[in-house]
Amino acid sequence: DRNEDMMFSGMRHPFLGVYKVGCTKEGKITGLDMKLYSNGGYSADLSIPVLERAVLHANNAYKVPHSDILGKICMTNLPSNTAFRGFGGPQGMLMMEAIIDRLAYEINIDPVELRYKNLCRDGDKTTYGMTINDCHLERCWNKLLKSSEYYKRRTSIEDFNKKNCWMKRGIAIIPTMYGIAFGLIALNQGGALVHVYKDGSVLLTHGGMEMGQGLHTKMIQVCSRCLNIPVDRIFLSETSSDKVPNTSPTAASSSSDLYGMAVKNACDQIMTRLEPYRIKCPDKDWNSWISQAYADRVNLSAQGFYFTPDIGYDWSKGEGRPYNYYTYGIGCSEVEVDTLTGDFKILRSDLLMDVGNSLNPAIDIGQVEGAFTQGLGLFTMEECVVLKDGRLFTNGPGNYKIPSCSDIPIELNVSLMDHTPNPRAIFSSKAVGEPPLFLAASVLFGIKDAIRSARIERGYTPVFDLNVPATAERIRIACEDRFTTLAQQKMSEKHKNVSERWNVIP
Predict the structure, then answer these.
(1) 309 Cβ partners below 8 Å, 6+ apart?
(2) Residues tagged active-site
(3) For 240-254, b where at least 16 C-beta lie within 10 A, e where not — what string?
(4) If we measure between CA atoms, which residue out of 289, 440, 272, 429 comes closest to residue 363?
(5) What mean pLDDT is predicted for residues 4-31?
(6) Paired residues of 313 in beta bridges
(7) What DSSP character marks residue 499?
């Protein structure tokens, strides 16, 4: 039963961020003191590695010369929270984007200019001391800024807002920089098994699970490219520990990297054994070489293995390479908010991802679209409400809202960067599973931009907080007027004692 499942299963970890930030008058960030508090629930579960990734991603895509970031897990009387797509990364990155957004209006600088000034560049070092190589963030930023027609649309949005009292539009552009690797070093390994039969057909098995993300398709493509044969000659055996033992979880956006290299390793062994026949009979085809090798009793089966080299982080010393590389992306979204109801719609979203030399652009674009939609739920809809006795109130589709076809952008443009090879993964590709999720934060900050227009028009400060998810209720309250002020007064009078409130945000 879905209701029971949601009541006793953990959710994504809610985070609270407290910070101090310093910058120059030109907008260059000089220092950051941030404390992250994670609601772990009643047991540890995966709270520690989730917090580690949140801390390591707390600067998002920005260079902060001096950072002091402290993460703490809070034990609460709720079901143990656990991992979900992003694994703590979106929570940490969101804190930094909230800082940038607030800072821009505190020092009166365009948020786009402030973000651009502080973007990480090639050769920069992260807070944890890792040098950033092959960084294409600035190039991605400039390309999307142009293709999305940001400044042209900004002008039209300002005109729209002047002419409309209750409907307001906003736009925001947000970067993401996501580290690729498992936090536990032992998990950064993968295996594969390739059998070539005497009729020339190939049976491939690898350690990754197919769950609709296209991993099997990519592995067949890798095998096809390594053996130089058509994909219709390759058959895939479902993942099983009697074929490939000791598999790592299909997670951390690393499966294509790990199992792709393992498949290549197995195929390279077979191709090395076939090399004498290819040299001897260069005019023959694959089937002929396989027949000759079989007749000469050559082993046509190979086990492939791969582990990610040169990674690992020493938390006691604060040094090392926690990630193999980074996947970069930029998202720009334009929204329209009804300031009387808190309802909103996404008019347009432009997403650009740097995924290296994509193994399969169609699959990768689908991953970007899916991750963005999940992020849309995270940042704007999926609110977990717990009753004061600890029971989950939002325990089913009736009161826990996820994105539907009517919630996605009216116009959605997804593109992949070209000429950005990645030397640290299979065929110069990059991971794409989790990184695009944070691009949905552009919707959240687009909503804030629309709300800000309404607040300024009504004489309220443009500096305000909007907690996640940005539900209709929170959007309406943020669009301050005499009605929201009256409602806040009534609520304060009725629920002076916090223990009497029934809506507890975990």
Answers:
(1) none
(2) 434
(3) eeebbeebbebbbbb
(4) 429
(5) 92
(6) 320
(7) G
